[in-house]
Protein 1
Amino acid sequence: MNAIALQALTILVLMVGFQPARATDVSRAENLFRAKCAACHSIACNRNGPKLEGVFGRRAGSVADYKNYTEELKNSGIVWSDDTLDAFIRDPGKLVPGTSMTAAGQIEGAKDRRDIVRHIRRQDKRSDLCL
Ligand code: HEC
C-alpha cells in the first residue's frame, strides 16, 4: 500500500471511529439538559426560569421579559461564561446566595456540567428552540 492510500485509510478509520463517540456525547448532554434543566428552562422561552437564549456574555438577571428574577441574582454582577455557568450549576446558592434557583439545578459531576454548558451553547446557535 502506498503512503497516500495509507493516509486516506487512516483518516477514514479516524472519522468512522470518532463519529459515534461524538453523537453519543451530544445526546448524553441533551438528555442531561432535559432531565436537569428543561423542567424550568428552555432556550427560547421563559418558563419558571428565564430563557437561556444569548446567555453567554450576558449579565445575570437581564432577560427583559422575564419578571421573576431575585434581586440577589440581578445584583450579583455576574456575566455568564463557561466558568460562571459551571460555578452556578455546581451550587447555585453558593455562587448567588438568595437565588430562587434551587438545588434542583445543582449538578455534581464536572463532566455533566461541562456537557450541559456545551449543550446550551450549541442550542443557542439555533435559538428558535423551545425545548
Ligand atoms: C426548579 C427550577 C429550575 C431548575 C431545575 C433549573 N433552574 Fe436555572 N433558574 C431557575 C430560576 C427560578 C432562575 C432565576 C433565579 C433568580 O432570579 O434568582 C434560574 C436562573 C438560571 C440562570 C440565570 C439566567 C439569567 O438570565 O441570568 C441560568 C444560567 C440557569 N438558571 C441555568 C440553569 C441550568 C443550566 C439548569 C440545569 C442544570 C437549571 N438552570 C436548572 C429555575 C431552575
Note: The chain has one domain: 28-124.
Protein 2
Amino acid sequence: MRIVPLVERPDLAEQVSVWGFDEWGHLNPQETLDQRRARIRGKMNLDRVPIAFVALDDDDGIVGTASLIFDDLEGDPRNPWLASVYVPVERRRRGIASALVGAVEEAARRIGYERLYLFTTSAASLYEALGWRALEERDYRGEHIQVMEKSL
Ligand SMILES: CC(C)(COP(=O)(O)OP(=O)(O)OC[C@H]1O[C@@H](n2cnc3c(N)ncnc32)[C@H](O)[C@@H]1OP(=O)(O)O)[C@@H](O)C(=O)NCCC(=O)NCCS
C-alpha cells in the first residue's frame, strides 16, 4: 500500500467524491454531488492546502482517502484540519487510515504548520492511538463531535 496526492491520480477523484457524498452528505445537505466533485477537484494540489490524498493497493486501486484542508468547522478560527478520512468497509482494520493520517500530518509539517485539528463523531480512539489529544466536545449540525489536535 502507498499513499499519493490525488493530483497524481485524477482518475480517482470520482470515487473520492462519491465516498464523501455518501458518508458525510448529511452534514452538508445543501451540497450536491456535482458541487462535491468540484470541491474535490479543488483539493488536487501538491504543496498547498487543500490537498487530498489517496491510498493505493498493490494493483494501484484506491483503498482510502484523507485530506488536509484549511477550514472545517464553520465559524471556527483554528486551522488547518485533517478531514474526510475514509476507508471502504472491506479494507478496514489493516492500518490504511493510520497511514493516511500520517501522510496528512507529514504534509502539514512540510508546509510549515505546527498544529493540526480534526473533529470526529465516532473514531476518537483511533486518533488517540495516533497521538492526538482530545479538546472540547460539542454539538454540530445535529451530531455530537469531539474536536482533537495534534502538535506536529
Ligand atoms: C474510521 C476509519 C477511517 C478507520 O479506517 P481503518 O483503515 O480501518 O483504520 P486503521 O486500520 O488504521 O485502524 C487503526 C486502529 O484504530 C482503531 N479504529 C479503527 N476504526 C475505528 C473506529 N471506527 N472507531 C474507533 N477506533 C477505530 C482500532 O484500534 C484500529 O486498530 P486495530 O485494528 O488494531 O484494533 C474507517 O472505519 C472509515 O472509513 N469509517 C467511516 C468514515 C469515518 O468514520 N471516518 C472517520 C471520520 S473522523
Note: Residues 23, 85-87, 92-98, 120, 122-123, 125-126, 129 surround coenzyme A (CB under 6 Å).
